[in-house]
Amino acid sequence: MTSPFPLSAATVDYVDGSTRVYAIIGHPVQQVRSPQAITFELRRRGLNAILLPFDVAPASFDNVMTSLLAIGNLDGLIITVPHKIRARDLCSRVGPLAEISGSASVIARTADDKWVGELFDGMGCVAAIRNRGVDLEGRRILLLGVGGAGAGIAVELARHRPAEIHIHDPDRAKAMHVIERLSAHFPAQSFSVGLPALDGLDVVINASPVGMLDPERMPIEASRFPSHLVVMDVITDPAPTRLLRTAEESGCIAVYGREMFDSQIAGACDFLLAARQVGVNDVRFDRQPARLNQSE
Amino acid sequence: MTSPFPLSAATVDYVDGSTRVYAIIGHPVQQVRSPQAITFELRRRGLNAILLPFDVAPASFDNVMTSLLAIGNLDGLIITVPHKIRARDLCSRVGPLAEISGSASVIARTADDKWVGELFDGMGCVAAIRNRGVDLEGRRILLLGVGGAGAGIAVELARHRPAEIHIHDPDRAKAMHVIERLSAHFPAQSFSVGLPALDGLDVVINASPVGMLDPERMPIEASRFPSHLVVMDVITDPAPTRLLRTAEESGCIAVYGREMFDSQIAGACDFLLAARQVGVNDVRFDRQPARLNQSE
Questions:
Q1: What does the pLDDT read at residue A141?
Q2: Distance (Å, rounded) from C-alpha A271 to C-alpha A293?
Q3: Which of B25, B38, B45, B55 is the best mutation test for A, with the most CBs of A within 10 A?
Q4: Sorting pLDDT into bands at 50, 70 and 90, what band is B104?
Q5: Edge-to-edge strand order for the sheet containing B106-109?
Q6: What region holds the Shikimate dehydrogenase substrate binding N-terminal domain (chains A, B) (predicted)?
Q7: Chain B residues with CB-CB distance to A81 below 8 A
Q8: Ordered structural domains, chain A, with CATH
Q9: What is the DSSP string of A234-275?
Q10: Nearest chain A Cα distance for residue B280, angstroms
Q11: B26 vs chain A: nearest CA distance in angstroms?
């Protein structure tokens, strides 16, 4: 510009007209950490992109999902409570973990403007436990809660051949339904419904929201755990939850929701960026299992 | 946390689960500067907020606008080409400048989840010219283009009592329609349609997109302008446009789109934040005229 005139130099440097948009859809959203972590990871890879929280109530979810495809520079979504099951239904195509679990946690726009989804919760949960040196093969595991996250964790647990997977959910029919589906895919795996004595378990995983909204509540009643127990909580905030605090006071290994979360970031970004490059029928879902196998 | 375990410290500090979302909706959006400027201004006021570009084609605009109300933490929108006229129609209530012009550039969510809109283009354009020491009263003005931005500028020009407002648009019927509406509100103002000789003018304002997509095109054919002419271009990128470059080479005062843009930022943020606090029937539209009066 050759003319001098007063202009504000007042701008930020992390967003402009070419920024690609990602969002995490949940209800509520205040507790989510994807905006910070996924945005960091996308930018580390050289992309001009930001992931924002979108607070969407269940009644509006279907309409919002359809309309978001009409925002041309919106490339993908992270899906959280309570939308993961509905998100899977709205995808034109899903990967095997979403298919078996019935829910999706990452939704990408394909080059031909379809939604394609996969579930990454299970991968992150199992990777977090294994990163603490705990092998799941032959172990007796109790999983608390089989909503979207819990169902995905159940699938991934089954892939690692534990001796027993106990599933407890306030909605017993839902737990039965998950076991029915999993049994078809993992016929050799032993499943049971209910709440066994803690002495007979090796690993307890909380995949329910109990402890998120009320930090003093616990998903199981216990003032102390057997010290051999590995206790994991998928909740990222508060940290530690009362469940994990009790586990640590009991001398247990306590695995935090944030560890699971961190394990999912890279895999989710891989999936979002690869799916965007191809048509819906050419999306490959073998990347995520391949990643798991590498860590074994 | 009392247990040591490996966690990524990899996050950004400008977005989290509580971030309030704003967007600029246009087609295309690469050229817009609101993401940088509005985000800066909102954060300067202490808000955890970001404005992102949303690229939405005209056929999808209505559906997207409805769905965006379902994103609970999305508080407001900037509207740009080609959606300003349709945006006005979708508001439950609009301010006087949007009412007269038939288009809206800023849309706020009210406390009762309605869209309320107002047009800020005209205010910014006139303020930018006046900031260069040019008084519009008694001047002969040519306005090129009466899309959403042009119509708003026409309203604000009329408020400043120029001797004559000439309006030229490839769609002559559209220019006539704008003059018809304006005449009802400003019965003493002289308007005419067409392209007069440049010698008989004081101010030329380009409010058309010519020069935005093809930097070598000009909205009027001229290799040189009379040096007394004030030439303004609403286009912010490229800067200068060929129109402004020619004006500067001719010794004219050349007023940049960015000057107009900067004048709108504070007003738009005032409106967005105030409307969010009240129900749709309690939104006040006298703030923006009051600001103009203060500068007179």
A1: 98
A2: 17
A3: B55
A4: very high
A5: B49-55, B20-26, B74-79, B106-109, B115-118, B93-94
A6: 24-106
A7: none
A8: 20-120+264-285 (3.40.50.10860), 122-259 (3.40.50.720)
A9: ---SSSS-HHHHHHHHTT-EEE-HHHHHHHHHHHHHHHHHHH
A10: 21
A11: 10
The verdict on whether B114 is a catalytic residue reads: no
Q: In chain B, whose CA is at the least distance from the CA of A258? A: B7
In this structure, are residues B24 and B51 in contact, taking their beta carbons and an 8 Å threshold?
Answer: yes
State the alpha helices, DSSP H only, in chain A. 34-44, 61-68, 84-90, 96-101, 121-131, 148-159, 172-185, 242-249, 257-275, 287-295
10-residue mean pLDDT series, chain A (296 residues)? 48 96 98 93 95 98 96 97 94 92 93 95 90 95 90 92 96 94 94 94 95 88 96 92 97 94 86 96 70 34
**What SS3 class is residue A277?**
coil
**What is the spatial distance between Cα B121 and Cα B118, in angstroms, rounded to a whole number?**
9
For residue B150, give the nearest of B183, B192, B179, B184 by alpha carbon.
B179
Chain B partners within 8 Å of A35 (Cβ): 15-17, 19
Task: List A49's β-bridge partners, or say none.
Answer: A20
Q: Which residue's entry shows tokens 């009066």?
A: B293
Distance CA A222, CA A207 (A): 17
Please give, rounded to a whole number of angstroms, the shortest distance from the CA of B76 to a CA of chain A.
13
C-alpha to C-alpha distances, B159 to B124, B165, B266, nearest whole angstrom: 13, 11, 21
What is the structure's pLDDT at B7? 52
Q: Averaged over B250-261, what is the pLDDT?
A: 94
Whether A20 and A73 have beta carbons less than 8 Å apart is answered as: yes
Cα torsion B240, B246, B248, B252 to 10°: value is -120
For residue B119, the cross-strand partners are: none
Contact in structure between B174 and B146 (CB atoms under 8 Å): yes
Q: Which residues of B touch A52 (CB under 8 A)?
A: 15, 19, 21, 50, 52
Q: Which candidate in A34, A37, A51, A84 is catalytic?
A: A84
- CA A166 – CA A190 distance, rounded (Å): 9
Contact between A147 and A207 under an 8 Å Cβ cutoff? The reply is yes
CA diameter of chain A:
80
Residue B236 pLDDT: 87
Identify the sign of the CA torsion B238, B244, B248, B249. Answer: positive
